[in-house]
Amino acid sequence: MHLTEAMTRQQRFVLIVAILSAIVSFLDATVINVALPAIGRELGGGLSAQQWVVDAYLITLGAVILLAGSLSDVFGRKKVLLAGLIGFGVTSLLCASAPTIEFLIVSRGLQGIAGALLVPSSLAIILANFAGPAQGRAIGTWTAWTSTANIAGPILGGVLVDQLSWRFVFGINVLPIAVTIVLLTKLEPDRHHAPGARIDVLGAILGILGLGLPVFALIEQANFGWGSPVVLVPLVVGVLALAGFLMNERFTAQPMLPLSLFRVRNFSVGNISTFLIYGALSLGFFTIAVFLQQVAGYSATEAGFAMIPTSLLLISLSTLFGKLSGRLGPRLFMTAGPLIAGSGFLLMLRVDERAPYLTQVLPAIVVFGLGMAITVAPLTAAILGAIDPSRSGIASAVNNAVSRVAGLIAVALASIITGAAVLDLAGFHRVVLVAALFFIAGGVVSFLGIRNPAHPAGPAHPAPDAGPQPDRLATSPE
Question: CATH assignment of 1-188?
Answer without folding.
Answer: 1.20.1250.20
